[in-house]
TrEMBL record, chains A, B, C, D:
CDD domains: AGPR_1_C, AGPR_1_N
Family matches, as HAMAP family: ArgC_type1
Pathway(s) it belongs to: Amino-acid biosynthesis; L-arginine biosynthesis; N(2)-acetyl-L-ornithine from L-glutamate: step 3/4
Entries under InterPro entries matching the protein: AGPR (IPR050085), AGPR_AS (IPR023013), AGPR_dimerisation_dom (IPR058924), AGPR_type-1 (IPR000706), NAD(P)-bd_dom_sf (IPR036291), Semialdehyde_DH_NAD-bd (IPR000534)
All residue ranges annotated as the Semialdehyde dehydrogenase NAD-binding domain in the record: 17-156
Location relative to the cell: Cytoplasm
Entry's family note: Belongs to the NAGSA dehydrogenase family. Type 1 subfamily.
Keywords carried by this UniProt record: Amino-acid biosynthesis, Arginine biosynthesis, Cytoplasm, NADP, Oxidoreductase
Record NCBIfam families: argC
Name of the protein this chain belongs to: N-acetyl-gamma-glutamyl-phosphate reductase
Length: 353, 353, 353, 353
């Protein structure tokens, strides 16, 4: 008799109390949803300056009737009540906030979702983000939280969740980078409008985005150094990001001239071994993934096809989930000693149908 | 200290085994998802002739890695292993299938999602569906499963889940129909393409649907008699359905010339009293709902505005959830003696952001 | 042998020189396109403060390679070189600008596209637009430019082009208003995002508009007094405007309880007589129009259906064309003594396919 | 004083009578529109088996009121009345039809839009299209009609209009191929749903296409041999086509590891020289094009960016225009001795705004 795929048969003996900082944006909303369905981690406090003292539904109308919390002003958060923190502040803001939280003595897990703790080398910040890092000492201890390629998350106190493009491209290229052969990956990837956040801008103006594809930061996206840090310098990346006319999800291809003829089975074995124990990566050989099946899920979908020395690998993920919130919860689960996918699978809703 | 809104603190002592008949379509997929996240009802068997012996992910790719079941051929289902049945067959097919299931002795709850058991009067079928009903005797016992307006669901053995438009329009007009004043409701409502099902057709051809609104069955939609059956003959309905350029959700307005000047507070009290105990209806006074916050949720959102004797009520719901699958699970929950919203709230994913 | 539908066999002996004021927005872009294809009226000067001295393609990238003009700063326009003016300024700006142009002695046709000269009664401005009109004397002379219902356009010096919703609703209801029977029209209409203009706002933020329908100004839209001015006080209007998830076009229904049973043929005769000589209205009996066929055209599509005393009339138009720019060119053509549809028909491109 | 960019000041002394075969599809509709606005070529006859004797508006509703023709049954076409033929039949059908037309003595220009006369080598047909060519003798005389790279169109009697992807990719790579250096181009390109034609299919089912990107024929698209025929064997092509969630337009990138460091100015000079006299190619240096500005136009937009030896070139075009109908009219114009862009520029409508 078949069993439900992911039953949580044990009633959790303890539920951790989680704080979400800057919870009024899209990533914040995604975190609130995930925690609401999580069996062992519950939203305790969620902050927003703009929506302070208003119900969560004021910023996230679809959550009305589902989540009872009201937003707390950032200054009024009681860190002592919290077991862990998820920080969904924008780039440049987390690096201002997190040092103070630590100085105030908070010693639970902190998972940051911005770029502010992703780089071991402080010199990246002035070069790529136009700012010096105010707490470079924290960078050495912070762990880059790509769960499929890090063993250090469980023991870390501060984890930096990777960027959305960086997640997809790194998961795509890492099994190849492991082969210790220099290669160049030509990546074209398109992202949905939710990647630009909840504040209107010309990049997300409906008449300009509907039916449009718009390349931007061609060969100059700030996720490039992040990917290089993980993959190593023997991988050259030629990356064209573009915006696509949809709300959620990143879809991309990596086209590679492999140094020698690629045997399809060999390539498959590289990927299958790399992700054998990875519950949030779904692999397919001899076909590239579509975007839609990955959207609304915590998965990064990967697939590949070869022809002689030509190798194409495709990837698809939800920028707000595997590219942000669900990956942060993967990290949270590891830091709390929970199963990696706790609260992440079998959502009652798909994004399309 | 705030508590998570919907914690299921008790580990359910028993999980009911559910069969989903015809589970390869969009409604079937929605049912599988809901059951996968349900604390006390688990998918046991799901049938599909087309996908027999294939994994659920073959029909529903986003469920790959989340649900382990394979489809069973309809002829091979073992009803003895099942505690309840959800029948997602198309109109005209359920009326062929359900009588045989009952004759074979299945005595658990059956929730049908087609139109085949919605009407007490067998004469509706030849008039509106071009077919005589093969089992008119079942119609007397079948309960029309609009949970907000029926007390008989809990004790029923066969429940007919309402149509998607009928759900929205009936929930919109029932608090007014209760006032026992004859009135005419002018309803215009637009539905997403998932309402047409998973089989391609000219109605869902992307170039013809993108950027388009297309009215159809104007003043002649088959949900009209269904609504009239619930509301009574003192409500006249002038209904224009149309297809809109999106995948999920129905949005509509009911415009009414009320027989006398309407006091906004009075109207609000009608709705608030009608839905005080209804966990799947969200009301707003003095504003009409948008579509997006209802999509991906089990809610029907209602809102109203008045100006003299003019009364406008708006509604929004997800056609695959409150218009089909989540309403069926509301009914299932009642029939199994579970809390009405078990498995329905706080999904980890919103459809938009 | 069939002939091309709309050949301009005569080489026009004179081409009028047209100025477009505030030509960097969506309506301005639509005007530039129409003039570029016009056989007897040519764009001479187009102004924009933001894009002064830049090519037209800087604001309207698809026109690069098709239109050679550069934008002129508003202060540098040489009115003496112009035969007619099209003013595409926003509401509240035209009323500041037009009086000065007249004082400077410009005596050619002026067609304004804002609300600033639509109302004969100056009291409308403080009530609906929160501003007193600075040149109320001009209102008496300005002609409301709905070409199908005005004989005065040809002789006017200042014409106010109707609003987009007002165009659709007035064309829909005017043949009924002619019957001199009081009635109430319940109108629900949805508009595309280009109606909000080229400046990003929360109303046009892609993640919030994609897959969404959002009602706004329910029972309070500023086009109501405009419609009433044309139709008369025996027509009551109950109007729900909403934004839809597309870029161009308005689609709506008018649902009416007609005082007596409506004979379909009688209704058809009302419409067919009213629009017999109207080249920019396309009528269909016994069916409501879809949106897409009207988009990209200068037409307002109308269609109707009756059932007893219930009468439903649907309408569809392109908000930037029949709702703005092409209607302005209809007016321009009349004022210049040209055929009404000069430059408007048989465009080489449809918006969908 | 500026002049209108593209005035046709001379009244054409003669208008050619054009026949469009198989005019009920999307490409047929695009051809009808272009001819309706053409100053020197007029639609005379348009055929359709399905819509025979029905007005053009039955297949193309937006053309109602703009084009007066009715469809002629294919068997009833009077070739003697026609000066030129545009054949919009599907692949495999033209090769059956065209030989008979020639045998019947038609000696005017024929422009075919299918793949059936694109290849000089008959062996391509059994390999790539699963069919032997019934008239291989015609292939030697047929001219591949990419106007920017062919001098033979003017004198040809049978021209094969290139495929949509092939047009974009060839225009993108040809200036590089001219450098006589072997290189590999890694191309990822996405197309709109109109490229799949007017018949509904699973590839164009709205719920599956909305918000989705779906790769197909990865490394195996049938435009590959077409591109190779033009560019030569020293160019290797690694091509990933994908379907995108919009109706019109193709957007793509070509990523190239150039054999030596590329100087941006040198690359620019290659493109600018190649397309100096090409009115339907718009070039931009140091930026890649967006899709939307090309849609609704007869242009292929190109742009490039370099970084060391990395070279990225982007392209965008309307698959129904530069990828089919407007390119066919470019060819028609050359064959009739007209200006290449006659009837193609300054349309009164943009597709977006």
């Amino acid at each position: 008799m078949p069993q439900p795929a992911h039953s949580f048969s044990a009633s959790p003996t303890a539920v951790s109390h989680i704080g979400v900082l800057h919870g009024a944006g899209y990533v914040g909303g995604a975190l609130i949803r995930l925690l609401a369905a999580h069996p062992a981690a519950a939203l305790h406090t969620v902050t927003s300056r703009t929506f302070a003292d208003q119900p969560v539904g004021a910023a996230h109308p679809s959550l009305r009737g589902q989540v009872d919390h009201t937003f707390t002003a950032p200054d009024e958060i009681a860190f002592g009540s919290l077991d862990a923190l998820l920080v969904a502040a924008e780039h440049g803001r987390s690096m201002q906030v997190v040092p103070g939280i630590l100085e105030d003595g908070f010693d639970g897990p902190i998972i940051d979702l911005s770029a502010d703790f992703r780089f071991r080398d402080p010199a990246v910040y002035p070069e790529w983000f136009d700012t010096a890092h105010p707490a470079p000492g924290l960078l050495a201890d912070a762990v880059y939280g790509l769960p499929e390629w890090s063993d250090e998350i469980g023991g870390a106190s501060l984890v930096a969740t990777p960027g959305c493009y960086a997640t997809g491209i790194t998961l795509t290229l890492a099994p190849l980078a492991q082969q210790d052969v220099p290669f160049t990956a030509h990546v074209t990837a398109l992202t949905g409008a939710s990647g630009s956040g909840a504040t209107p801008s010309s990049a997300t103006h409906f008449p300009d985005r509907d039916g449009n594809v718009r390349p931007y930061k061609v060969l100059g996206h700030q996720h490039r150094p992040e990917i290089r840090q993980t993959l190593g310098t023997h991988v050259s990346l030629d990356f064209v990001p573009a915006s696509g006319p949809w709300t959620r999800g990143i879809w991309g291809t990596a086209q590679i001239e492999w140094p020698k003829a690629t045997d399809p089975n060999t390539v498959s074995s590289w990927y299958e071994e790399a992700y054998a124990g990875a519950p949030c990566v779904r692999c397919s050989s001899d076909r590239l993934p579509s975007l839609q099946p990955a959207v609304g899920t915590p998965f990064c979908d990967l697939g590949w096809k070869t022809d002689g020395s030509t190798l194409v690998v495709g990837f698809a993920l939800d920028n707000l989930l595997k590219g942000a919130a669900s990956q942060a919860v993967q990290n949270l689960n590891r830091m709390l000693g929970l199963p990696e996918t706790a609260g992440l699978l079998t959502s009652p809703v798909s994004v399309s149908t």
